[in-house]
Amino acid sequence: MNPTDLSPESPMSAIMEKLPGARRALFSHYHLGGCQSCGFSDSETLAELAARSGGMDPAEMLAQLLAADLHDQAMQISPEEVRAQLDAGESVLVIDTRTREEFEAVRIEEAEFMTQELQQALFAGDPEKSIVLYDHLGRHVLDHCSWFRGHGLKKTFAMAGGIDAWSQKVDPSVRRYRLELD
Predict the structure, then answer these.
(1) Taking every annotated instance into account, which residue ranges of this chain make up the domain Rhodanese (predicted)?
(2) Do residue 88 and residue 159 come from a single domain?
């Protein structure tokens, strides 16, 4: 199923799978999905969510989600494109947004770890600086990218698939891992 196969009758699990930024878009546009009182289940359809949320138009909500997905795609860059930029000697700052423990365990050689000091320096620096942010799997980095862009750093991109995709597509010497949470 691709995003155009989605409908108001699609379960939220399918929408979340095909539109990774859907939860963020639902929360920012409709205040849905961000907390217990406005959450939804995986089996609930978009139409059901719209109906119990005050009779919203599910077709309009789906259109909003698809537009938000296109916006997210425009903020992404592939690991291969990042490698090509680095190999070409382009001035691009690669920033790791994972935890310090993850960064110290496995990282992209050219990457810097995101600290408050680095962030403040970037926000006070050249707004035309090319920046690539990455996380583990590419699931949260769009939030960081949006935040950077919202602070005037319009040439900030999110690496699709995170360091895991980098390991699979660019540099297999970068160890893959998975997080196990209690």
Answers:
(1) 88-175
(2) yes
